[in-house]
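Supplementary Methods S3. Input chains for the assembly prediction are listed below.
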Amino acid sequence: MAGMISMAIMLHVGSIFLILLLLLLLVWHFSKEQEFKPFSIKYEQLSLFYKATLGSLFFTGLVVMAVAKFDVLWTVYVMVLVVLHMIVTTVKEHLAYKLTHIKDALSQETFKAYAKRKYIIDLVLIVILSAVTYAVSL
Ligand code: HEM
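Predicted structure tokens for the full assembly:
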């Protein structure tokens, strides 16, 4: 049982590191000056990995929760809220991307600023939440 819990937590923490790496890459990608076409090719790849990792973060969290027989601290409820927030903002951002005109420079810049802010917020939320989780469990 202890082995299962530590294995599940390892996968959960692995997903956290992976999503942090992807968020850093996304923010860095949004900060570069480049044409929208090359920007969007790389952005679509990164955002696909980001969405898959978000799913894995949710799934591994559920596995940890099930293995722990739902006997968890309040921090886990905050984790669920944060992940739900990330999913909703990701869907909104995806729709905004679809509506962005390929030739309209103004809407492209608006989208870039909006999406960059979303990813920075995700990054900050994950760092704060991880720090609080470890502080509470000390
Ligand atoms: C933004 C997303 C999330 C972050 C940053 C996050 C972060 C963390 C961290 C840092 C830990 C401690 C790992 C350790 O003990 O080494 C943890 C544990 C855990 N997480 Fe998450 N998590 C997230 C999402 C979720 C979700 C969506 C769920 C459930 C559906 C979840 C369920 C759990 C559970 C059950 C534990 C074990 C808590 C305990 O030992 O009492 N997490 N998480």
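The pocket of protoporphyrin IX containing FE is lined by residues 9, 12-13, 16, 57-58, 61-62, 64-65, 68, 72-73, 76, 79-80, 82-83, 126, 129-130, 133 (CB under 6 Å). The chain is about 90% helix and 0% strand.
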